[in-house]
Write a structure and sequence with these properties.
Elements: H1 6-18, H2 20-24, H3 33-54, E1 58-71, E2 77-90, H4 99-111, H5 117-135, E3 141-153, E4 166-170, E5 177-179, H6 188-205, E6 207-208, E7 211-213, H7 223-232, E8 248-250, E9 255-257, H8 275-286, H9 318-327, E10 331-333, E11 344-347, E12 356-362, E13 367-371, E14 376-382, H10 398-403, E15 404-409, E16 417-418
């Protein structure tokens, strides 16, 4: 990740003088009994909030907060920051029971009589692609990781004022804490309405310039395989587990990583800025072909080459990576709402720095991503952001819509079209 976090750097320098672990490691602070009770109450409030929020769509929800740092001051705004692991199982017994999928199917069935067969084939193909990902979640434990901040006010007796509690979730790039309502799953009615609108869009895309697209092409990119690879070769330092001696920190970039979770057997690229290299690995694992020409205009990796050979190469340099994938037709524009497992998110020029992530979950309700430097594994960055009327987007999701570009990925090796 090519950015300088001045604030983080100052904090780290300060921490070296007062005890590095106090600021950046969990469970290092010494609390009074009153402070400990306050932090415990904040932790339980967070657990309850997450369980209740997820209860309409999930069962067996386990919420495990681990304290990172806190500041408790009577009669003033206080806070506690937690690394949180959530494990739960969808209540739906099949993808077709999920509200969004119900809406998509209802839309297609209601419009079939007015569609030509190529349009129906195209819509069914898009639906099947969605179902293929969702089958991987049914009856299985889904794991989400996130860093939460709990703000609250305590009185002079160290009791939290109930109406003062507010929850925030950290963005995966560590740049901001957003209102945790961005994780809200939406309502069943809203999700079903959104699914109906989503299918209408798909049907509309089956016509381009008067041509009907036939589903006789083959997409050689396996986005599920790519997403699984991304989840396999990363972790969540420095908090999972805490005080892991393998965790490394870069003072200049503010990035954390743990190479013991990287695929260093195959890829030996030695860097503290590994985000593009890691996503390139996942895309290659998913089927995007590597170039045989080894220069700065091609996408390639070879352990036998000098490290300097990769300078500005699309495999490791995000601006070149993005341009290469777009120019070769592997990337196509997607949205915050529609980016599924195996899709890619890249910070844009508005953000003022370069970073890239892979989406590793979109079960229509929750979304997660994974990354390197800072390493993130199945990081919970959003809920559905679907409103009750089926529309999408809110002030809570504006951060991602402003600073991130989302891309779908495909590798089309055969296409046919007729009028």
């Amino acid at each position: 990740m090519k950015k300088v976090k001045v604030l983080i750097s100052l904090l780290v320098i300060l921490s070296m003088t007062i005890g590095f672990g106090v600021l950046l490691r969990p469970n290092q602070e010494v609390f009074s009994k009153s402070e400990s009770l306050v932090i415990d109450e904040a932790s339980k409030s967070l657990e309850k909030w997450v369980r209740e929020m997820e209860s309409p769509f999930y069962k067996n929800t386990s919420v495990k907060p681990v304290l990172i740092k806190s500041n408790v001051q009577p009669d003033s705004l206080s806070y506690a920051v937690f690394n949180v692991n959530v494990q739960q199982v969808l209540k739906a017994q099949s993808p077709e029971e999920l509200p969004m999928i119900k809406g998509m199917i209802n839309c297609l069935n209601s419009k079939k009589s007015n569609l030509k067969q190529p349009q129906i084939d195209y819509a069914n193909k898009e639906l099947e692609d969605q179902l293929n990902e969702l089958r991987g979640y049914i009856s299985k434990i889904e794991e989400l990781n996130a860093i939460f901040k709990v703000d609250f006010i305590v009185d002079v007796n160290y009791n939290i004022k109930p109406d003062s509690i507010k929850f925030y979730v950290e963005t995966p790039d560590e740049d901001a804490f957003l209102d945790a309502d961005i994780l809200q799953p939406g309502t069943s009615d809203g999700l079903e309405k959104y699914g109906f609108k989503r299918m209408e869009e798909i049907i509309g895309k089956s016509k381009e310039n008067g041509l009907l697209i036939i589903s006789s092409f083959h997409d050689a990119y396996d986005r599920i395989e790519a997403g699984d690879y991304a989840d396999t070769y990363t972790s969540n330092p420095p908090y999972d587990p805490p005080n892991d001696q393998n965790d490394q920190y870069d003072l200049g970039t503010g990035a954390w990583w743990d190479k013991t979770h990287w695929n260093t057997i195959v890829y030996k690229f030695p860097t503290s800025s590994d985000c593009a290299d890691y996503i390139s690995q996942a895309l290659y694992e998913g089927g995007i072909p590597m170039d045989s020409i080894h220069d700065a205009s091609h996408w390639w990796y070879d352990n036998s080459e000098r490290v300097s050979s990769y300078d500005y190469c699309p495999w490791v340099y995000i601006p070149a990576f993005k341009n290469y994938m777009l120019n070769h037709g592997y990337f196509y524009s997607s949205t915050f709402e529609d980016a599924n497992k195996g899709c890619v998110a890249i910070t844009n020029s508005t953000a003022g720095y370069y970073h890239v992530f892979m989406i590793t979950q979109n079960d229509t309700i929750n979304r997660a991503l994974s990354a390197h430097t800072t390493d993130r594994k199945h990081y919970w960055y959003s809920g559905s952001t679907v409103n009750p009327d089926g529309s999408t987007g809110s002030s809570h999701s504006s951060y991602y819509q402003t600073y991130y570009d989302f891309y779908g990925v495909h590798y089309i090796i055969e296409v046919s079209s007729i009028r």
